[in-house]
Design a protein that fits this description.
There is one protein chain. This protein is mostly helical. The protein has a two-stranded parallel sheet with strand order 1-2. Helix 16 packs parallel to helix 18, helix 27 packs parallel to helix 29 and helix 33 packs antiparallel against helix 34.
Length: 1514
């Protein structure tokens, strides 16, 4: 056969053979073992290479299709396993260098033609060559070919990234491989100048372009994920490695040094020197600034992105202390490549766009950060040695940045911050312009810009605080504020973030420096602003800015106290006097003179009012605080108040406490300021709060005049913002008083009111409290969502404040507000209902919101409230009014029942249901368990009326209707846990309420036929059942007319016939049947529960409950049978019926064991089986369910809800042996369960979820079965434990990998370890064969202890530890021979604890670290037990210590873990004699020996001296 194919070589060379046949023959020759050809593989590789080279050298003409097939053939050879095996076996196979040139040219052609369609095969060939070292020599041996290939591939990748085509991984795989190969040969190059030339000439530009495109590309889902997530990052790293190794080689440092430093020498010397050296900087920068390699717009961006990279690479290579000036000059040269650098000399005529500014400033920021992080700039060295060369450069840079303000760009702020970090003197000459452009006049609103701005200003604060030059900084701030404003409305000077930073700085500053700043502010206000503020809006705005800063300083500086030096106290006193006399008083006089302009006030007057009252509030607050904290301080307020007449004290105004202000002046100021919804009105409210607090702080008894003053002040605060709270438009408030305007005032006012409710409420009238409740509800009910941006999360809004109040714990403590809020909710419900019907006045909800009923009397009588008690004292008829209130609610309750029985509900539309749902959501947030009885009853009647007297329109969403009813029943259930639950029964019998609920549900159920299979319907049934159960339990437990209520409700359920339509042959509604079962089964459950709890002494109660249980059981069984009537033969049981039949069976059993036995005279001898010799009410029904459940059980699989219900039914059913149909026994159930557990759908997770019901069922089966049945069950169990089946089903379970399966660790590994430990604890009497014990060591060595979650690690560790401890304690004979195996297993535990207990910085989860400490303690204990077994382990003590120190040398342990392990190993060292210590010192390696010496020294010092001698004492 070989002879037949021996002529292939000739045919391949023959011109007569077509190329199609040649390729086929070549392919056959490569794969066939029957083709004989000397050196066949080399011949075929040479043939295809020669053909391709000849074609591209124009020596051979071939069709394109043939060329592609030749490339494909070459690719197949290069990637064939045959070639790899031959090379692996050492056979020499070469590839022509010419094929590398052809590949490079082919890729170059693709770049030129910009067509990537046919290059895939060439790239694949290239990858095959480069990934095969013997073939890759054609590139690695000729570095020029590799550089050329890398360059062409980079350009090709750039083309692909700039196109709209999807990015695939093939090109980038080859590119990554090429970079890796080039980096290997680049490091082997001897001539650094040659490498530099190759990189700068061929790779520099394409690499920078490629890096930029990889970072800037907007990746799409069509792009390959590997390229986006892995290859792009890897290639960028390789680009940086190529540039650093090629351009910034250590050998080129001298060239960089000479070029950069000689540029600073005289021109003639410079010209001579530069002729003789390499110019690497000029070369690199000329390539970087060359605009020919890409589009001009893109080139500018690449330069800006590449400059920081090049500088970073330069510093990584050359940055040492002696090279800092070289690094600086490199910085200046790279900075010169940026267009922004020309602005320093005003050489740039074009205007940069914001995008250009952002790009360039980002580059400058990165350059400056590199200078900072590498300590390039040393202030002292630069000044002494280099004539401030660096300082002058940075100074010009700072001047350029300040003169060309770019406050909308975050990088601009960060650049200035970096310059300040270098040296604050760099920016200090332009400090005023910097403060103006970056702070005072900067219009910054975006959070991405706001944060760097605050960081810059904070850096200025911290710098001048450390220098103790804070007054100098704020002198510049004030000078900027006094300049003409660039905009009419400046932003507040100090934001919340800056205020926090200012507070930190003020706490560090000396008090006198702060006072210097404050005196300067007052002086500027007095001399520069106040004289010219009249009719000047700009001056008024400046006044407000200074007042705001003054307020911030005074409120955030450290308060005076009794240890403050007296000069500081006196100077502070003088400051406040000057503030009141020279600033506040003139401003108030100015307002008094212009109060008549209240109808047409100008902006200047509003801002002056804001400033004046802000300063008044600041002065009053500070004076009060200082008088409390510092005994040396003399309060001006106290002096003024001491001379106040009684008449003045009765007034609510503040003139009595302001020195130099008469009442008439103050009234005019208040009247004028009240017209502005701004800071002035807010400050008036704050002043009123100060008035209230000062009166409340009086230790003496408060007079009637004081009480009136309190009432007037509280009313003023509340009504001051009344008109604003009705505004539809509002904005969040940032907490700055000076920032309050008409839009932010509602949030500020409401925040002030709510945060001081505990002070206000006792002094408000009932109408005012109702107003507060009404506003609260309106805000919460507002459907308009207020848009709050991400940076405004900390801002205050009325919605946030209201929600916080609603969910707070102190709202229920403000009882009158709580009561009024409930009344508002009921009124709102009535208004919603009013839109649904015209006859709303007859509806119970409307009656519950009647204005003429004293709903709050019960609360008022229990609260000692100044304002309201006095207001109500004129009508002191609380008892009569309370009686009237309860009488009204009783009538309303009866009205609800009448409307329910009449079947005339109000029809609701979807929008009305949604409105009710929103109100119900608000109710659910209230603490319903702490309501007063009247409020509790009103809420119950409201919810009952919504359930019983309303109905959703037929067109409404059924799921929305269900959600509405679910919410109502959930709230009704919550009311059953309240302390006032008994109050419900004052207005009607419990049975009436239950009847109303059930009747309404029957009527409503007709609309829910389409949603019976949804989760919402199941939730609906569950919430009804929960409510009925709680309500019935309340009736029984509280003995609320127990017999009457149970009798009426039982009679109602037994007599009601909601299925009458089915009896007449009409279509049966399944919803009605399911709803009917809910009250019946609930009543059965409650009666059964309490019947079982009754003692023998309560025979009458037992008899009564039994009487009611009997008809309920009969009716429930009838209802279930009726429900099953419509089921087809093979239809599975409805899931909702199984719990019902279970409850029915329990009730039947309970009745038969109590109620029925009471009828049998003389037959109450407590039989063990209550089911013997008695007929149950629904035996056939139980048996039918039993058969059906067993049939469905095997196919239930993972249907957990069905399985839970089915197992619970079987548990109850199997407790009565007489109920088994026919010949069936407990074994029938056992077989069914066994089949269920063996089914494919029963996973480990399912078994875990069913563990409790399965255990209960198995327990019941074992208890009720016979001895023979029990033996059969045990035999079946033992057969199921055949472990060989496990190995057959899953062979991987024997491997270590299966132990790393997270699921198998908890389900298989841990139970196995626990079982082994339990067996080993039986001792040598049971496990007499030592070989069986030693098998445990094999198990322990296969269990993993790494790469585990902490909870899994803990369980595995404890399992292994228990096995080892059991062997150590219970099998001494085994330990005589198996000590090495024991120590191997134990050493794994030691190593794992060392690994888990190593220091990791922040420990993170304390619970996890607690587990490690617990394990370390067990290791210590095990060491002590090992040391106690001296006979077995003395020989191995050296081995144990050596293993310990070898592992200890590898990690740094957490001190707590190390303490336990060290204490343990000390016990082993006790076994070592002097010869052992010498042996360890001689045999351990150097590093380990040092660890051992340290351990032994500590042992000798801390342990041996204290405990060592005890072994030898009697």
């Amino acid at each position: 056969m070989a002879a037949i194919y021996s002529g292939i070589h000739l045919k391949l060379k023959s011109a007569k053979t077509s190329w199609e046949d040649k390729i086929k023959l070549a392919h056959f020759a490569w794969i066939s073992h029957q083709c004989f050809l000397p050196n066949k593989e080399q011949v075929l590789l040479d043939w295809v290479s020669h053909a391709l080279v000849s074609y591209y050298n124009k020596k051979l003409e071939l069709e394109d299709e043939i060329v592609e097939k030749l490339w494909t053939y070459l690719d197949n050879i290069l990637h064939s396993r045959k070639l790899q095996n031959l090379l692996k076996d050492g056979k020499t196979i070469n590839l022509s260098f010419l094929i590398a040139q052809v590949i490079n040219e082919r890729i170059s052609e693709t770049c030129v033609q910009k067509s990537h369609g046919n290059v895939g095969t060439v790239l694949s060939c290239c990858k095959g060559i480069l990934s095969t070292p013997p073939l890759a020599i054609i590139y690695t041996a000729k570095c020029e070919l590799m550089v050329n290939l890398l360059s062409k591939l980079s350009w090709l990748a750039c083309q692909l990234l700039t196109s709209e085509d999807a990015v695939t991984s093939q090109l980038f795989d080859v590119l990554q491989l090429t970079f890796s190969q080039y980096l290997l040969i680049q490091r082997q190059q001897i001539n650094p100048n040659r490498v530099f030339g190759q990189v700068t000439s061929h790779l520099f530009q394409p690499c920078l372009l490629l890096r930029h495109l990889l970072m800037a590309r907007v990746w799409t889902p069509a792009d390959d994920g590997r390229v986006r997530q892995h290859l792009s990052r890897e290639i960028r790293n390789q680009v940086e490695a190529v540039l650093q190794a090629g351009i910034f080689q250590p050998e080129l440092l001298s060239s960089y040094r000479e070029e950069l430093l000689l540029e600073r020498e005289p021109q003639e010397k410079k010209k001579r020197a530069l002729k003789t050296i390499l110019l690497p900087v000029n070369t690199v920068l000329s390539k970087l600034c060359d605009a020919s390699f890409c589009e001009p717009i893109l080139q500018v961006i690449i330069v800006a992105n590449s400059v920081p990279l090049l500088y970073k690479l330069f510093l990584d290579s050359y940055c040492k202390a002696e090279n800092h000036m070289v690094c600086f000059h490199m910085f200046t040269r790279l900075f010169g490549c940026l267009r922004i650098s020309h602005l320093q000399e005003d050489l740039w005529q074009e205007t940069l766009s914001p995008v250009d500014w952002s790009t360039e400033l980002l580059a400058v920021e990165q350059l400056l950060n590199l200078v900072l992080s590498n300590d390039i700039y040393n202030v002292a060295a630069d000044r002494i040695r280099h004539k401030e060369t660096q300082f002058q450069f940075y100074r010009k840079l700072a001047e350029m940045l300040v003169n060309h303000s770019q406050a909308s760009i975050p990088a601009w702020f960060r650049c200035l911050k970096a310059l300040i970090s270098l040296n604050h003197l760099i920016v200090e000459p332009d400090l005023d312009d910097l403060v103006a452009s970056a702070w005072i006049d900067a219009e910054v609103s975006e959070p991405r810009t706001k944060k760097p701005q605050e960081t810059l200003i904070s850096a200025m604060f911290q710098t001048y605080t450390k220098l103790r030059q804070f007054p100098k900084l704020f002198e510049e701030v004030l000078s900027v504020i006094y300049r003409p404003a660039a905009d009419e409305l400046r932003l507040p000077v100090l934001s919340a973030g800056l205020t926090e930073k200012l507070r930190e700085c003020l706490l560090e500053l000396p008090p006198n420096q702060i006072l210097d700043i404050l005196f300067l502010m007052l002086e500027k206000c007095q001399t520069l602003i106040i004289p010219d503020v009249k009719d000047d809006s700009d001056m008024a705005l400046k006044l407000l800015s200074v007042s705001s800063v003054l307020h911030t300083f005074l409120f955030n500086m450290k308060s005076l106290d009794n240890v403050t030096p007296l000069p500081v106290v006196l100077r502070t006193q003088s400051l406040l006097d000057k503030m009141q006399r020279e600033v506040i008083q003139p401003l108030l006089d100015l307002l008094k003179d212009h109060w008549a302009e209240e109808n047409k006030p100008g902006l200047w007057l509003e801002k002056v009012s804001d400033s004046a009252l802000l300063l008044v509030y600041t002065w009053v607050e500070l004076d009060t605080l200082l008088s409390i904290n510092c005994s040396k301080y003399v309060s001006r307020l106290a002096e003024a108040a001491g001379g106040v007449t009684e008449c003045a004290a009765e007034s609510w105004d503040f003139s009595a406490l302001l020195p130099g202000v008469d009442r008439q002046c103050w009234k005019r100021v208040v009247r004028l300021s009240s017209n502005f919804c701004s800071a002035s009105k807010y400050c008036l409210e704050l002043l009123m709060f100060q008035k209230i607090k000062k009166i409340l702080m009086q230790t003496s008894f408060q007079t009637e005049a004081d009480l009136h003053t309190l009432q007037h002040a509280a009313a003023f605060i509340l009504h001051s913002g009344r008109s604003s709270m009705s505004m539809e438009e509002s904005e969040p408030w940032n907490g700055n008083i000076s920032a309050i305007n008409a839009l932010t005032y509602p949030a500020a006012h409401w925040y002030l009111v709510v945060s001081n409710l505990t002070i206000l409420i006792p002094h408000l009238s009932l109408k005012d409290v109702e107003y507060v409740a009404d506003v609260l509800l309106k805000i919460l009910s507002s459907t308009k969502a207020l848009g709050v941006s991400a940076d405004q999360d900390s801002f205050i809004t009325a919605e946030k404040v209201s929600k916080a109040l609603l969910h707070s714990t102190f709202l229920p403590e403000i009882k009158v507000l709580h009561c009024a809020f409930i009344s508002c909710i009921i009124q709102q419900c009535a208004s919603v209902l009013c839109s649904a019907t015209q006859g709303v006045a007859d509806q119970p909800i409307q009656q519950l919101s009647a204005d003429n009923i004293p709903w709050h009397e019960e609360v008022l009588s229990s609260c000692e409230m100044v304002g309201m008690v006095e207001a109500q004292s004129k009508n002191n008829q609380s008892k009569d009014e309370a009686f009237h209130c309860w009488t009204t609610m009783e009538k309303i309750a009866q009205h609800i029942l009448l409307l329910t029985r009449a079947g005339s509900p109000v029809t609701l539309e979807e929008d009305q249901i949604e409105s009710f749902l929103h109100l119900l959501e608000i109710i659910s947030a209230l603490k319903l368990d702490s309501l007063f009885p009247s409020d509790h009853t009103r809420c119950f009647l409201l919810l009952l009326s919504l359930v019983a007297n309303t109905r959703a329109n037929v067109s409404c969403s059924k799921l929305l209707s269900l959600k509405f009813l679910i919410t109502c029943f959930h709230l009704l259930t919550c009311l059953q846990t309240g302390r006032s639950v008994n109050s419900i029964f004052k207005v009607f019998h419990g049975s009436d309420a239950l009847e109303a609920v059930v009747t309404a549900l029957f009527a409503a159920s007709k609309c829910f036929a389409d949603v019976l299979t949804t989760p919402d319907w199941a939730e609906f049934l569950q919430v009804i059942q929960t409510f009925l159960e709680c309500f019935l339990q309340t009736i029984v437990e509280k003995r609320q007319s127990l017999k009457l209520n149970l009798e009426k409700f039982t009679f109602f359920l037994v007599s009601c016939k909601p299925y009458a339509d089915a009896d007449r042959g009409k279509l049966w509604n399944s919803a009605v049947s399911q709803l009917l079962l809910v009250p019946l089964t609930t009543l059965c459950h409650v009666l059964t529960l309490y019947l079982q709890q009754q003692s023998e002494k309560k025979q009458k109660l037992t008899e009564m409950l039994s009487v009611f249980l009997e008809p309920t059981v009969l009716q429930t069984g009838t209802a279930i049978q009726l429900c099953l009537r419509n089921l087809t033969k093979d239809q599975p049981l409805p899931l909702a019926f199984i719990p019902s039949i279970t409850t029915l069976l329990k009730a039947d059993l309970s009745y038969m064991s109590t109620g029925a036995l009471m009828k049998m005279e003389g037959k109450q001898e407590n039989p063990k089986d209550p089911g013997k010799c008695r007929e149950y009410s629904h035996t056939e029904l139980y048996q039918k369910f039993y058969i059906q459940i067993l049939r469905e059980l095997t196919s239930a699989g993972g249907h957990l809800q069905f399985l839970h219900s089915a197992l619970q039914f079987l548990t109850v059913f199997c407790s009565v042996t007489d109920l088994y149909p026919g010949e069936e026994t407990a074994l029938t159930v056992f077989h069914a369960i066994k089949k269920l557990l063996a089914g494919p759908g029963t996973t480990v997770q399912v078994i875990q979820d069913l563990e409790i019901p399965l255990t209960e069922l198995m327990t019941q089966l074992v208890e009720s079965c016979t001895t023979e049945e029990f033996c059969v069950m045990m035999r079946l169990v033992l057969q199921g434990l055949e472990v060989s089946n496990i190995w057959k089903q899953n062979p991987k379970i024997q491997t270590k990998e299966v132990c790393q399966d997270q699921l198998l660790i908890s389900t298989i590994v841990v139970p196995i370890l626990e079982t082994v430990a339990a067996l080993l604890r039986q001792g040598e009497e049971i496990l007499s064969n030592p070989h069986h014990v030693t098998l445990a060591f094999s198990i322990l060595l296969t269990v993993p202890l790494d790469h585990l979650k902490m909870e899994e690690y803990e369980s595995i560790f404890l399992g292994i530890h228990e096995v080892l401890f059991s062997i150590l304690q219970c099998h001494p004979k085994v330990m005589l021979k198996a000590a090495p195996s024991f120590l191997n297993s134990f050493n794994r535990l030691v190593v794992s604890v060392m690994h888990e207990g190593r220091q990791k910085g922040d420990r993170g989860n304390t619970d996890e670290f607690g587990v490690v400490l617990k394990c370390a303690h067990l290791i210590e204990r095990m060491y002590s037990h090992i040391a106690a077994k001296t006979e077995e382990f003395t020989v191995f003590s050296v081995f144990i210590v050596a293993q310990y120190v070898i592992e200890l040398q590898k990690v740094t342990l957490h001190p707590s873990v190390k303490k336990h392990l060290t204490e343990g190993i000390y016990h082993i060292l006790d076994l070592c004699i002097e010869r052992d210590i010498k042996f360890l010192n001689a045999s351990l390696q150097m590093g380990v020996r040092e660890v051992f010496k340290e351990l032994y020294n500590d042992y000798t010092h801390y342990h041996k001296t204290k405990h060592g001698d005890k072994k030898y004492t009697a």
